[in-house]
């Protein structure tokens, strides 16, 4: 049997890594990496982003000890696609995941041939762990242990009840809790507590070697199940904001628990912590129609206006990364793979990447590495898409899940200048046909590549 392209790519990364480490006196200083990826957290839903009715002291502490992005964009506005873009450094459609994959056991997702951050760091000698939500495939080859993770604990589909760990939202109810590809049961135990404990155990076991943890939280995705402590704090807020806030603060408390563990084992200054939401807040019925906060921005989860794509994002490693600073440059979740490679001196995968390293942006406030970027959500002629170039943003086939204003048949191409109007409430395409033409050409070029 011929080795798959992924095996060859990872072997190449490993051979480069061995050579680099053999010639480097800095090998022992390679940082650990933790990605805290939240689920359906709104654009401004943290105290450090201006949410005055929401307590997030531990997220705020990460911002105080690091760099906070104000124009970080999700790889996509839907769960699976966002995760594919994060883990591969590619536009999700290029990684074969332009939308959500199935939550049904036995259905494949992102191809095993795709090289993930975990593959890259595993080949470079890191212990790699997945904790939490997956939603990128439900076959052995496309579950976490087939995608570069030495260890995996969590649920494989899009969501679960946090106490029974059942998926209730489509077809027959089914239990969805796994450890290293084996079905397990933790009856009645709160999933956020389980995730925090799993993170702590993984850190403890691997503290003497470099490690990578992908902590993919299922919070504040529905069902909104904050703990009693936080339900009491927010009892006077109207629904659904009170329910949503209770869940976010529940998450924040567990983030504090895990960061305290990193501190306790003496690795805080050697651990690159990346905190980010997968996309904007949900307006689905299952989350009571909203709850999230995006301030002036239009849109939400499932659409490509700013409220669907612009997300909270923080990076922290005291002693290496500046503390208490912000970055206003445009950046994208696909940038984290090359950024991590840069910080960890790990060779990049040989495949074409859309992400670019943010190391100079983070450390030296350098300009954005992107002249333009492209998003596509869905398949076919009616797929939503966006081109961003400088402050210009062109949306094709737009949807507005925040329902802030009606879209008409004249809005098939919707142009805004974010430097003048972050609300995206007025389509100025007719006033700037030359910009529409230029950005449409960028769209066409990307689509011709993706079709190959």
Spans of at least 5 consecutive residues with low confidence: 22-28
- Elements, N to C (H/E): HEHEEHHEEEEEEHEHHEHEEEHHEEEEH
Our Rg estimate from Cα atoms comes to 21 Å
Q: What is the arithmetic mean of pLDDT? A: 95
| Class derived from helix and strand content | alpha/beta
Shape: globular
Adjacency order of strands in the biggest sheet = 9-8-5-4-10-1-11-12-2-13
Q: What proportion of the residues is helical, as a percent range?
A: 25-40%
Biggest beta sheet summary: 10 strands, mixed
| Share of residues in strands | 15-25%
**Number of DSSP helical runs:** 11
Number of strands: 18
**N-to-C CA distance:** 26 Å
Written overview of the protein:
This protein has 452 residues and is of the alpha/beta class. 28% of the residues lie in helices and 17% in strands. The chain is built from 11 helices and 18 strands. The chain has helices spanning 5-22, 57-64, 79-88, 117-123, 191-205, 228-233, 241-264, 306-309, 336-344, 359-364, 433-450, and strands at residues 32-38, 66-69, 72-73, 127-133, 151-155, 166-167, 174-175, 178-179, 182-183, 211-216, 271-277, 313-316, 325-327, 331-332, 372-377, 384-389, 392-396, 413-417. The strands form 4 sheets. Strands 9-8-5-4-10-1-11-12-2-13 form a 10-stranded mixed sheet, sandwiched between helices. A 4-stranded antiparallel sheet has the order 15-16-17-18, covered by helices on one side. A hairpin with a 2-residue loop joins strand 16 (384-389) and strand 17. Helix 5 (191-205) runs parallel beside helix 7. The chain is globular and about 60 Å long. The two termini are 26 Å apart. Residues 22-28 have low confidence and may be disordered.
